[in-house]
Amino acid sequence: MKHRSVNRRSVVIGLGATAGVAAIGGITLTAQAENTDGTDSKGASPNDALAFDQDDYTEKTESIADASGTEHSVTYRFFKARSYVTSPSDSDHQSLVVSVPVKIDGMAVDPSHAPIVLANAVGAYMPSTVADATGVGQAKLEMTGMGGGPMPGGTPAGGGMPSGMPSGGTDGGMAGGTGAINGMVNLAKLALAAGYVVVEPGTRGRSLTDSSGNHYGTAPAVIVDLKAAVRYIRANKGRLPGNVERVVSTGISAGGASSALLGASGDSKIYETYLREAGAADASDAIFATGAWCPITDLEHADGAYEWNWGTLPTQTTGESVDQSVSKELRSQFAAYQAGLNLRGLRGSGFGKITARNYDDYLLEHYLQPAAATYLASLPDSERATYLARNPFITWKNGQAIFTWDGYLAHVAQRKKTQPAFDAFDLSAGENNEFGKATTKARHFTAYSAKNDTTGLTGKRVDSDIPE
After folding, report:
1. What gap in Å lies between CA 290 and CA 296, rounded to an integer?
2. pLDDT for res 39
3. DSSP annotation string for 98-113
């Protein structure tokens, strides 16, 4: 792995009522000396060094399955890894590959105006790389230190975020570079088979440390890298095939959360210092859309939401229920938060204000049961009978699917995370590591868990820069 030292300087940014030190993993960043025309002190623009070479590709043909599982012969141009910033702190991770469709099942494809899918391989906030990729869908998620080595595809399935993983250490399974594992598909290959231009960026992640022990891949490194990749795409309008105004970011679990954040924070000034330090292109980092699978986007309230959903059910790894006093306190937090949102049911639904008391009924009545009924009604009688026999929690009557929330949860899965699910009292969750800083590997990010810390942490307070 190649990593360069980064200058340290405190940069204070005010965010509403909070202010803090702008830092990646505790390494504060300095902006490049820049002139008013966007060039640096030597007169060079980052965009000049980041020009996409249209001729640097290898043509490949692969058999790739679409969403229904049908195989297609896909011929595409593969552009090997190249850096998306001019001053990478980690060149093994801050690079991307591009795949451009040429033919699908022998039919020529014109990719010039196709949407561009930014298929990130982020999982568990660990580092991902495309440095050794020789074709589409070969991004690797580096799970080293979490019970496994590099994993192809980099898209966790099943469990969601990293804490409380099953013993296999891969958060329920990974989407592989050569096909599906545990039912997951390779999003990059799926997009290419549909005729999209595919860009796969590598990113820094929370397990990376430099020679001094500084954690330089913790927050906000991953979102800075994704933004830099988007800026690279936009800066190469007319050179990189595809419509740069139609960039769609996809991801699963932490990758879904990162894609959601990417979509919600286009051109935010908060990240400008980091992007300039990395030498990102002078372009917009706004995207057109996000396809986010099982993202967890609100870590401040995620522990309460998790207990609301799973609190009384046994944990998959132990078969035992979690501490119900802790679960009750967290459920109460979620109830107060939900009430404060003042959410109301859809017009004509008959629901007024949605609270933690009726949220499950609302979801059942207006989303889950209608979806089940539509599916069951589409099946032939024999197949429907077989399905209902396999799923006895469903009652089928007069074309309606009826079941309880508890029945639905038991059908979907078991509780996969311990307690609290995200801000662990013992700082063992992946999210604690994601908020690491300098040589401190993990930190609390909620007042509740800081108060109940079991590691001997002094002060029992959330560090002042966490809100930023």
Report:
1. 14
2. 46
3. EEEEEEETTEE--GGG
